[in-house]
Amino acid sequence: MDPRRILLAISGGIAAYKTPELVRALRRAGHEVRCALTPEAERFVAPLSLQAVSGQSVRRDLFDPGEEGEIDHIGLADHADLVLVAPCTANLMAKMAQGLADDLVSTVLLATRAPVLIAPAMNLNMWSHPATRENLACLKARGVFVVGPEKGELACGWEGQGRMSDPATIVAAAEACLGSKALEGERVLVTAGGTAEPIDAVRSITNRSSGKMGFAIAAEAYRRGAEVVLVAGVTNLETPFGVRRIDVESARQMRQAVLDEFETATIVIKAAAVADFRPAR
Fold first, then answer.
1. Catalytic residue flag (residue 88)
2. What digits encode the pLDDT tens for the residues 103-133?
3. Beta 267-270 vs 187-192: how paired, if at all?
4. What's the pTM value of the predicted model, to 2 decimals?
5. Which of 199, 145, 179, 172 is nearest to 28 (CA)?
6. What is the DSSP string of 78-126?
7. Which residue of the set 88, 138, 156, 177 is catalytic?
8. Is the torsion defined by CA of 244, 249, 254, 257 positive or negative?
9. Domains in the chain, please, with CATH?
């Protein structure tokens, strides 16, 4: 992908400590990264650290004469090819849904015409609260992209959904948002991975296919604007961002899954390593 300009907006959640690594990952992918912080975000990540890893000055204050003199907040909004909000707290989601603009980050989000990608991070009860669900639905309806949150151990000590996605996943999502629209309107069906044919309840005949090629094809098709369905055999790969995945095990299951999706597909790519034999019963 060609280098793009990404504005990383950081809100005040504990997951903000991951943002220096996120900045480094975005820069390794070749992108220019600027950072803007809410006042609360400074409690979790030092602006100096972000400046060091981004190579750019960090914006924090909506009305700082020095910062506005370098690049004003409207210029900051216009400069970005993508605004990435990570972590995106429940509070900031609510502000975005209501169109509030009471600090630098919320003002930029209201002023930008670039695509917006949010990476929510919060306690699982906050994530499942009806107000948060309504705000999320509102933002999605306006075209805001969402990556995560993931399930796992949370900073509060709870287990559940609410953990911010890993930097690599967020970078993949950002690049998907920035991808070309060459396949927009297409519905791509991809098969990937190997199948396993059971001999009995314990043993099976399978192969060493990793599924990497099919998963890469699915990810690239989505990045180019297609709706993608991935029928995955036996593999431990993570689902590419934006792709709908159907897990199967045997060749018969894969055949049926493909037939179920075939009629609505405009492009079919068969990259799976399907078994040649099935044990006789």
1. no
2. 999 999 999 999 999 999 999 899 999 999 9
3. parallel
4. 0.78
5. 172
6. HH-SEEEEEEE-HHHHHHHHHT---SHHHHHHHH--S-EEEEE---HHH
7. 156
8. negative
9. 5-178 (3.40.50.1950), 187-270 (3.40.50.10300)
